[in-house]
Write a structure and sequence with these properties.
Thiol Ester Dehydrase, Chain A, two-stranded antiparallel sheet, globular
Length: about 140
Amino acid sequence: MLTYLPHRPPIVLVDELVGAEPDRTVTRLTVSASNPFVEGDILLEGGLIEHVAQSSALGSGYTGAQAGAGDPRVGFIGAVTRLRIDRHPALGQQLETEVIMLYRMENVQVIQGTVRCGSEVVAEMEMKVFLMESAHAS
């Protein structure tokens, strides 16, 4: 999985790539005490936002590699809008996150992320991501 993701431990907030298409990615994360965005027994807002961003990066890296694009590109969160967090996931809970590509123009992507715990939506957001060159380019 790290082949397709520009992030490295301890800041890896995706456990599993469930599915990836050019405009849709589904991932999973189990909230653990070792997660740097966990405080007490809950995943904080920043962790939910970073998890969605990394889910998008993982999907882009995977689909890019399947298309022969090489190393994953580095993305930076430019803006988060329409953020709604209904509750903070607790330790041990498994999240399933869907990221949909809304717009793509050169080095900018606008994505929509939905984070679920079971059938319950716990967070939704839109995010503008600015892309740079490969994470492993010299």
